[in-house]
Amino acid sequence: MSEGSSGQLAGLRVLELGSLIAGPFCTRQLADMGARVLKIEPPGTGDPLRNWSVLSDEGSLWSFVQSRNKESIAIDLRSPIGQELVRRLTERVDVVVENFRAGRLESWGLGPDVLRQANPRLVLVRISGFGQDGPYRDRPGYGSTGESMGGLRYVTGFPDRPPLKMGVSIGDAIAALYATIGTLAALRRRDATGRGEVVDVALYEAVFSLLEGTLPEYGYSGVVRERMGNALPGAAPSNSYPTADGRFITIGANGESIFVRFAAAIGMPYLTSDPRFDNNQARRANSEALDAIITGWTIQHSVEKIWELLNRAEVPASPVYSIADIVQDPQFRAREMIVETDGPKSVGQILMPGFVPRYLEAPSRLRWHGPRVGEHTAAVLGSELSLSEEELDRLSASGVIGLDRAGAPAP
Prior knowledge:
Blueprint: E1 13-16, H1 22-32, E2 36-41, E3 55-56, E4 59-60, H2 61-66, E5 70-75, H3 80-90, E6 95-98, H4 104-107, H5 112-118, E7 123-128, H6 143-149, H7 170-193, E8 197-202, H8 203-208, H9 214-221, E9 238-242, E10 248-252, H10 256-265, H11 280-285, H12 287-298, H13 303-312, E11 317-319, H14 323-328, H15 330-334, E12 338-342, E13 349-353, H16 377-384, H17 389-398, E14 401-402
Parallel strand pairs: 1-2, 1-6, 2-5, 6-7, 7-8
Antiparallel strand pairs: 3-4, 5-14, 9-10, 10-11, 12-13
């Protein structure tokens, strides 16, 4: 395959199978870092994410971000001919990322035994609800099930209210990050051994791994961590507090020296000698009383005034930002975390999140926004599998592939 990109992963070739969030988010990160990612989508409809969330005349705005820097190839994976095309493509890539239910690839003749026999250096990354084995392997699983079964939703929210989800698909994102880490680790091992690997990421396990000290705490004393709202379980004060202008500010003044500076900054230095608040364990035990005192102060001042005061006192604090606040913030702009790009004519300018992490010598970059369904089918299958125009037209007419010849090949 031709290599037309730069970045940390320039030269890496990735085939994306799957849809929606976890798998495509993993490959988005790889593409951002310079890998060439071929995204396989169903002909016609494409990835269901194209019809999720807020839609433009060209489809989902989210999809422009999730599929950026990728090439779209429309192939029907349920067709034996489509499966053979994918098998041939897997012989020419370094990584395959899929997020189907366990066993789905095997049912299409695309399981690890088949793919790795043809390409022993292949790294196959598998993301599913419950992993590739165990009693729940055949159950369907989304990010919501992973967040719930993995324990995250149980500890999210306020004690007098039902468990809450976060405002984004955090379970899918966590699994995608682990899949990316697993991909890079497997590639590092392949450099040393010449052998590929199968990376198995379960959504519920990815979420469960983030539960901090809840497991050893339960094993040691039988304590079940409950919902605590915005408070930090292990230290105080750490919470979000209302301000005079109807906003909220998060304050983390839980370190001993930080609390001394905080108390002085808000004009209450005597708090440090109050036996209820003179050390972290005392503040934890009396966190409600302390939060009430802090709220009584924050509600008298604006967010900006509080933030400026606490920054001068070297106390960690931040306004609770909306997306509008983020776009206007100079730190996000200075760090190039708001990327502006031209979308299709009917859409105009698109704002996208920048690239994490940042690299000094080979930075990630936006090469193009998410393509149309099948925009690169003809170019890729023609160049990589030597299919003629007549063969492409015949496969398109039979519904095995989808062509969008109006789209130009990826830069």
